[in-house]
Automatic annotation (TrEMBL):
Domain of life: Bacteria
Keyword terms, alphabetized: Membrane, Transmembrane, Transmembrane helix
Naturally occurring in which organism (per UniProt): Pirellulimonas nuda
Annotated transmembrane regions: 21-46, 52-72, 132-153, 165-185
The protein's name in its UniProt record: Uncharacterized protein
């Protein structure tokens, strides 16, 4: 007997999976909106006699392309069996396959961490570069988006001054201009945080670390800040990469967090950076760092800072945690015999 329609289906842990039919209906509706707006805008621009109407076709045609491609992908997945999806994922010409393993060893390399000596400690930890790449990507998108919108705004203002107002083009460009302002604000905020706050450094006494070990660490914050709070924590995350249909998904879950340092209300001067020492203790029963095709266990030191007149920022410094060395068989045998006596 076929089950009735339901918004929530199979329960997985503390959450339930949503209805595939409801998700497909929402995706089809959004794709049809993009497609209809793009086609309608293109038709309206083709009726215009302006010399720049051909350039303005780029906006509605882009929206129509987004809606058409999304509609085709959604309809292709509707009703597909798991066997067909798995067969498609095994094809060598499939464009979105999972990344292959870069190294035969599941343990991360420590060469990138040990090649930079520290000033106070033995090694200086590398910083996670995700924030920098985000700023570069945001800058590229912002320049292209606002450049195209600016071209249309110049033409619209010129026509308004001549007494010829093109309302369809104006109404189409207005939301794009507001989106461009939002992109510019986010870019300035990220760039301001990345370049103006000051450098954060974390140094450790030894690498790689092993479960059950205790290591000395120091955090150094440069710049000119009036800090409200600075918190350093040891964080472990599990990252799973899997296929959902024909799309690659990445799920991240934080499995361990321990606050190592908490400082409040202090000033940072360019001539005297803030320094604080603390200890890192890896739990004895913790899983070591691990990296494979579909799973990853990542350890890091996370520094969060809240300062006056600056956006709060968070910076991560990856750690290498290796398995504890196995005890020799003779030592294990001696311990067992001693316990027996």
């Amino acid at each position: 007997m076929r089950s009735r329609f339901s918004l929530l289906l199979k329960k997985r842990g503390r959450r339930r999976t949503g209805s595939p039919l409801l998700a497909a209906s929402g995706a089809i509706a959004s794709d049809l909106i993009f497609l209809s707006v793009g086609v309608g805008g293109a038709i309206a621009m083709l009726r215009e006699r302006d010399q720049w109407a051909a350039w303005a076709l780029a906006i509605p045609l882009s929206l129509a392309a987004i809606g058409g491609v999304g509609l085709w992908r959604t309809l292709r997945r509707v009703g597909a069996s798991p066997e067909w999806v798995r067969w498609r994922a095994d094809r060598p010409w499939l464009p979105h396959r999972l990344p292959s393993v870069l190294s035969a060893s599941p343990l991360p390399s420590v060469e990138s961490a040990t090649d930079s000596p520290g000033v106070r400690m033995q090694y200086r930890l590398p910083i996670d570069g995700a924030r920098g790449w985000r700023v570069v990507g945001m800058a590229l998108i912002c320049v292209l988006w606002n450049g195209l919108v600016g071209f249309f705004l110049v033409e619209i203002v010129s026509n308004v001054l001549q007494g010829n107002v093109n309302w369809p083009i104006t109404l189409l460009v207005a939301p794009l201009a507001f989106a461009g302002v939002g992109l510019g604000y986010e870019l300035m905020r990220d760039a301001w945080t990345a370049t103006g706050v000051g450098v954060t450094r974390v140094e450790v006494s030894d690498l790689p670390m092993i479960p059950g070990g205790t290591y000395r660490c120091v955090v150094i914050q440069a710049g000119q800040l009036r800090v409200r709070s600075l918190v350093a924590a040891l964080v472990c995350e599990e990252v799973a990469t899997y296929l959902q249909g024909t799309d690659s998904r990445v799920a991240t879950a934080e499995v361990y967090r321990n606050t190592l340092l908490r400082e409040r209300r202090f000033d940072v001067d360019p001539a005297r950076p803030f320094e604080a020492e603390f200890e890192i203790e890896i739990p004895a029963d913790a899983m070591h760092s691990f990296r494979s095709t579909h799973n990853e266990v990542a350890w890091s030191v996370e520094v969060q800072c809240l300062a006056h007149r600056w956006p709060s920022f968070r910076r991560r410094f990856p750690l290498c945690v290796y398995p504890a060395p196995a005890q020799p068989a003779s030592a294990t045998k001696g311990q067992l015999s001693g316990a027996a006596t």
